[in-house]
Amino acid sequence: MISSHTIEHLEDGPRTVAQISTKVRPGGRIYLEWPSVESETFPIKGLGLNFYDDGTHIRTFAREDITAVLTEAGFDIEYSGFRRMWLRMLIAPLLVIRRSLKLRRLVLYDAWDLTGFCYVIRAVRRTDA
What we know:
It is a single chain. By secondary structure, the chain is α+β, with helices and mostly antiparallel strands. It has one domain: Rossmann fold. It has helices spanning 13-21, 63-72, 86-103, 112-115; strands at 2-4, 29-35, 75-82, 118-125. The protein has a four-stranded mixed beta sheet with strand order 1-2-4-3. It is elongated.
């Protein structure tokens, strides 16, 4: 199951994660990605690099809280941390220029991997759960 940038649009993201995790079969995997708590205080606003740049965001959740929900639901955590795709980090300046030219305004979405904007959790459901 993949959920990318969904739970920040919900008031009770941890409860939703608990509910949807029941749909993952034993041995199945879950991938969650959402804006980090730190992104709420990023100093650059209006360019896609602050949590509140998206008016539909309701709240973000601590990575530890979501990790605890999954552990309690019978998942082994493979990775819990910031999204760091090394290739995207290397080509981020080019991606920023490309997207900004396309949109005709400066946006920094493609710098998320450099800044720690997103949390990621990858987990596998235990077969005995």
